[in-house]
Specification:
Blueprint lengths: L8 E12 L4 E15 L10 E15 L2 E2 L6 H5 L2 E7 L4 E4 L2 H15 L3 H14 L2 H9 L2 H6 L3 H4 L8 E5 L8 E10 L2 E8 L6 H12 L6 E12 L2 E13 L3 E11 L1
Antiparallel strand pairs: 1-2, 1-12, 2-3, 3-4, 3-5, 5-6, 7-8, 8-9, 9-10, 10-11, 11-12
Helix pairs in contact: 2-3
Length: about 260
């Protein structure tokens, strides 16, 4: 996109695996798409502190436990595949501006496929999210694509203290919000960020207690790793890759790889 750090298109992919070593079971979720970004005219941007653009996803592919999700079960993802977004370029958060269009698509889908209970429930969830401003804001800004491309720790550049940069990680484990402090290594147009849990904000004792409550078995240790790699070309964001590993007492392991590659 013109006058921004973004290219016009990206290949996007996300993979999450949960490995239960006690029961020798693995669950996986995979998502991929082609992402197109298009500038939109904006006459109300005198401070040059935001960007309006259209985000379009095509060739969406979803797999659950290596089985491809077919139509109409994948409608939930298709409904959000065309977004008009407001991006605050100072604080790096997004707002959806075409809510009526999304609601229209959700209502059409409900009329066409309302007899499918699971799909109807998902469409009702979409409407609930859209009608709750706070929940909508959280949902869009915590979505994996938005977090990777527009709101990763390098771009947000948030501080825990005067000396420490960091952020709060949601979604890796339900009901658990992890404080992650980061260390940056910048070499020209290559950036590496390594993250670790900031135990001054949440102690290992508290984390272990919460993990026991979530999983309902004895947990005495955990290992957490976070890595963000960014490659720029002529000051444009080209490749971004976020890798997260959470090993829970060698009983449960959670892996996530979230990445975009410039087209």
């Amino acid at each position: 996109m013109k006058n921004t750090m973004y290219m016009n298109n990206y290949d996007y992919s996300f993979k999450r695996e949960i490995i239960n070593k006690m029961e020798d079971k693995k669950k996986s979720f995979e998502y991929s798409s082609k992402v197109y970004l298009t500038d939109l005219e904006d006459e109300d941007n005198e401070k040059n502190d935001h960007v309006l653009f259209h985000l379009l996803e095509e060739d969406i592919n979803v797999k659950i436990d290596n089985e491809e999700m077919k139509f109409p079960e994948n409608l939930f993802f298709e409904i959000f595949s065309s977004l008009v977004l407001f991006l605050d370029t100072k604080r790096h958060y997004c707002k959806i501006l075409n809510l009526e269009n999304i609601l229209y698509r959700a209502n059409i889908a409900k009329k066409a496929f309302g007899k499918k209970r699971k799909l109807q429930k998902e469409l009702d969830t979409i409407k609930e999210i859209i009608n709750d401003e706070e929940l909508l804001f959280f949902s869009i800004n915590e979505s994996r694509l938005i977090k990777c491309l527009f709101a990763n720790p390098y771009l947000k550049n948030e501080n825990f203290t005067i000396r420490k940069k960091g952020f709060y990680l949601y979604g890796i484990i339900k009901k658990l919000k992890l404080p992650v402090c980061i260390i940056e290594k910048i070499n020209n147009e290559n950036i590496e960020i390594i993250g670790s849990i900031e135990t001054l904000k949440m102690s290992r004792y508290v984390i272990l207690k919460k993990l026991r409550e979530i999983y309902n078995f004895e947990i005495n240790n955990f290992d957490f790793k976070y890595k963000l790699l960014i490659n720029k070309i002529n000051n444009k964001l080209n490749d971004i890759c976020i890798e997260i590993l959470f090993n829970i007492d060698n009983k449960v392991e959670i892996r996530e790889i979230n990445k975009v590659i410039g087209g």
